[in-house]
Amino acid sequence: MNLLDLSFKRTSYEAKVLSSIWYECALGAAVLTYPKLHGSLDKPAEYYAQLRQRASSRLEAELEFCQEHNTWKMLLQLLHSLNCETIESFAMETHALSREEFRFLVLPYLETALEPARRRAAEGDTAGAEEMMDACRRHRFFPQLIHDVMTTDADTLRDHLIALLQLWDAEFMEREREITAAVLKRDAEEKEAWLRTLSPEEAVLRATGVEYAPEPGVQQVLLIPHIIYRPFTVEASLPQTKVFYYPVSDTSLPGLRDPYEPPSRLVQIYKALGDEKRLRALKLIAGKDRTLKELTDALGLGKTTVHHHLAVLRAAGLIRVKGGSYAWNPQSLHHHERELNEFLTGSHDQ
User: How are beta strands 241-247 and 325-328 bridged, if at all?
Assistant: First the structure.
């Protein structure tokens, strides 16, 4: 078949950093109401158990409702839509929404083609809700979330989300608000500096650990730093937007780590460069894109050994998989010298 391709294919996306303590509050509610994850987070499981024990009876009631219905996801969607600076403005704008518009904003965004069904569901159409639930039936909790939005009184749900944010802020965030905001701001500024010199794909990879390639319909990637969910990156979708709530870097947490412990990213890149075979492989790839077979033949090593070396180089961001070949990423070395200097000349406590 002969094909004349006149289509436009998106080659990149815009990346933007957005920092707010309100996202931290919503993610905090997500973490606290998902105990299966507690043993895998930066802080020990006991920390989250103690945090839950500190909750007032009012907040505990809201957390139980959140745990049953995954309303933290609804809260995140509202925060993105309303973009409020204060809890007072969030409460006011949330109350000002019609029941239909409120339901539309808290129903999960699935894809552009399903936005009409989302709108119909928000207006009370059960067929629209069923279309959404059928489309995401393999998702861990979206079908139940859609059902809950449809069957729970909108005003009850609205009051719950406002109370959850207000009580979390008052009981857990108030004493740490300034420190938390400063850490999030410091990390956001670091990522904004990356975006001035790196490609969006490289900045997203370094911030999140996710190699996110451009995809149809996605024009923007939002990078939102968090502390509470470290070391996990949480991925979400909004219209024409991919969202990554990513863990702040070690360097954004002064005083909370050993100053003599090097940042993991710095260790990764020097470990990758500190091996003769990996440097030879990198030199070959820097000359032109190479397949695994080409590298195996050129290096005179076994396939498994070469694959291991390539995995180390990929983890450090030095190379990328491009089609069926490995390609050099020259931007990967832009910041390592500065990061090494910052580590060596930073504050010393001993």
Answer: unpaired
